[in-house]
Amino acid sequence: MAESTMLKFVARPQAYPPKRAPDARAQDFQEVVAEFIVARAEEQAGRCSQCGVPYCQVHCPLHNNIPDWLRLTAEGRLEEAYEISNATSSMPEICGRICPQDRLCEGNCVIEKGFGSVTIGAVEKFITDTAWEQGWVRPLRAIADRSGQSVGIIGAGPAGLTAAEMLRIKGYDVHVYDRHDRAGGLLTYGIPGFKLEKPVVERRIARLVEGGIQFHLNFEVGRDATLDELRQRHDAVLVATGVYAARDVAVPGIESAHVVESLDYLIRSNRRGFGDTVPDAAAYDAAGKHVVVVGGGDTAMDCVRTAVRQGAASVKCLYRRDRANMPGSQREVANAEEEGVEFVWLSAPAAVVDGAVLADRMRLGVAGPDGRRAPEPHEAGRFRVEADLVIKALGFDPEDLPGAFAAPDLGVNRWGTLRIDHKTMATSLDGVFAAGDIVRGASLVVWAIRDGRDVAAQMHQYLTAKAGALRAAA
């Protein structure tokens, strides 16, 4: 009997694809991590313990069949591994790049304690990149003709794109509306190329276009059409706008000209990568400047690492809690430190003055209702951080969609996110559904993909019932 290719975690050490040297990668926006070669991917996949209760799968928002495609990869059956991976995820190569695996699948791997988790994200990325190279990614094809019904999707981010693909497969006419000039949402304009190179996103979108999905770009709901007008055009509408209103901090001087919002900064940087002409580019260019980023999430990590690549004289990140309590990925923090970013833990801005940020030392007090210890001022007092450019990366809240869409009856909750029936994912308006961050608040791309998949199933049920009612009335 042939020796099993699996359960090799005792004899085989954990290994990730090698990272480019910090000095080299800080000079460009190419991805940091090299690709696995086939032999290494098979070797690392073979470390999987094939446990009876796969916690990696349980803690994946998409519930990907991770042990199955790890086993197939270890056996050299890459095309089958891709098919299994693709069955539950519309963007596996993107999730493999940007998911915080250390907090999800890999962080819950049963061999993580003592042996180091299976390198799930790297294998997932390798499988699908190989599938694209080998032509295994098939064109998008409808399995039925339901072109008598159409769907309008507001927002071309991961939730909207996933729902568009699922509904197009069902045979509906699908129209996607987005206010940007390129589809992809934050995948295109919010996430830097060193985490997600843009051709990876563009080939996904091209597949959707070739599959018959129609994109209406530079289209702003409320300006180019009201929500009610879109409801009249389509049999169902999905709102998947995400959340884009930047949170602020109330300190003196925060309105200074050298203080910018994180998303404005990242969008302009990504536009430069596309070769676009960028308005007021100098104000958003870190070259030669002392940069201070305020915040501790993944967006803050994107900003500090972008500033390094723009040639900043120095980059510091102020965060009011300590390293152990920051929300951003610890891998991203490590990457940033390797590239020369300085983290100033337990510090909060008190004022922005010409050429500097005045910051207060903080300490962690008692835990709040969410279980996290609340930061409070420390008697160590105030200090000064040199800053020619200050970037606020404090998170995002929803925009006023009822006002923007001229839809006062569109229900929202006290946080401003859209109120839905969590069973049907329907909003307060008949035939209007919602998914992604506009429902759950600022979250992960993988959760947006999950929501897009789920809402497509609910919309299909609604549209099927609607078509049946029309036939019965005819």
Automatic annotation (TrEMBL):
<dbReference type="InterPro" id="IPR006006">
    <property type="entry name" value="GltD-like"/>
</dbReference>
<feature type="domain" description="FAD/NAD(P)-binding">
    <location>
        <begin position="151"/>
        <end position="452"/>
    </location>
</feature>
<dbReference type="Pfam" id="PF14691">
    <property type="entry name" value="Fer4_20"/>
</dbReference>
<dbReference type="Pfam" id="PF07992">
    <property type="entry name" value="Pyr_redox_2"/>
</dbReference>
<dbReference type="GO" id="GO:0016491">
    <property type="term" value="F:oxidoreductase activity"/>
</dbReference>
<protein>
    <submittedName>
        <fullName>NAD(P)-dependent oxidoreductase</fullName>
    </submittedName>
</protein>
<keyword id="KW-0411">Iron-sulfur</keyword>
<dbReference type="GO" id="GO:0046872">
    <property type="term" value="F:metal ion binding"/>
</dbReference>
<dbReference type="InterPro" id="IPR036188">
    <property type="entry name" value="FAD/NAD-bd_sf"/>
</dbReference>
<dbReference type="InterPro" id="IPR028261">
    <property type="entry name" value="DPD_II"/>
</dbReference>
<dbReference type="InterPro" id="IPR023753">
    <property type="entry name" value="FAD/NAD-binding_dom"/>
</dbReference>
<feature type="domain" description="Dihydroprymidine dehydrogenase">
    <location>
        <begin position="25"/>
        <end position="135"/>
    </location>
</feature>
<dbReference type="GO" id="GO:0051539">
    <property type="term" value="F:4 iron, 4 sulfur cluster binding"/>
</dbReference>
<dbReference type="InterPro" id="IPR009051">
    <property type="entry name" value="Helical_ferredxn"/>
</dbReference>
<keyword id="KW-0479">Metal-binding</keyword>
<keyword id="KW-0560">Oxidoreductase</keyword>
<keyword id="KW-0004">4Fe-4S</keyword>
<keyword id="KW-0408">Iron</keyword>
